[in-house]
Amino acid sequence: MIVFTDAFTDDELFSDSFPQKTEFGGFIINVSSKMMKKDDDEDILYDRKTFDAMDNKPDNVIDVDQVVETFRLQELTSIAKIKDCVATITPYLTALKKKIQTNKGEDALKSFNEELKKFLMDQVGKDFSNYKFYMGESMDTDNGMVVFQKYNDDGETTQLYFFADGLKQIKC
């Protein structure tokens, strides 16, 4: 298994056990997740269909996103508007852009900036109310990656978006 961590904070963010694809010129990784039922007393995750079929259901159950719960991502409740989002991710993006420029050069940085604008304005900005925002467990708001979570129309699945150049891969 490969675990993807934040290159700046070492927070674990997701693993290759979840379906994923690259988007926006390869600068964004889109990870598919699903909503689960969590027995808060026993810390057990249940698939919703399995849970619905159970005879003796636990009492203290909450809905959670599988990736968010598994990797202990922390919700950023302070992001209510697109300008809050931009203000929150600016310190991270400054460090990420420097990393891209150093490791990949000016052309890659130019491409990243173009794709970033498309991602933030055309995708996130147009459907902002369907997004939630997370960080890794350390909640390092100066250095940590902001993870974008979008709820799909089916109410069962979500998409989480990560900056590809801000990830490290660790084989487990």
What is the CATH superfamily label?
Answer: Metal Binding Protein, Guanine Nucleotide Exchange Factor, Chain A
- Number of distinct beta strands: 11
Shape: globular
Oligomer: single chain
Low-confidence segments, given as residue ranges, are: none
Helix percent band? 25-40%
The top-level CATH class is Mainly Beta
Radius of gyration: 17 Å
Helix tally equals 4
- Number of spatially distinct domains: 1
Mean pLDDT: 92
Strand content: 25-35%
| CATH fold-level assignment | Metal Binding Protein, Guanine Nucleotide Exchange Factor, Chain A
Q: What is the makeup of the main sheet?
A: 8 strands, antiparallel
Structural class, please?
alpha+beta
Query: What string, H for helix and E for strand, traces the elements in order?
Result: EEEEEHEHEHHEEEE
Architecture (CATH level 2) name: Beta Complex
* Amino- and carboxy-terminal Cα gap: 5 Å
Family: Belongs to the TCTP family.
GO molecular function: calcium ion binding
InterPro entries: Mss4-like_sf (IPR011057), Mss4/transl-control_tumour (IPR011323), TCTP (IPR034737), Translation_control_tumour_CS (IPR018103), Translational_control_tumour_p (IPR018105)
Domain TCTP: 1-172
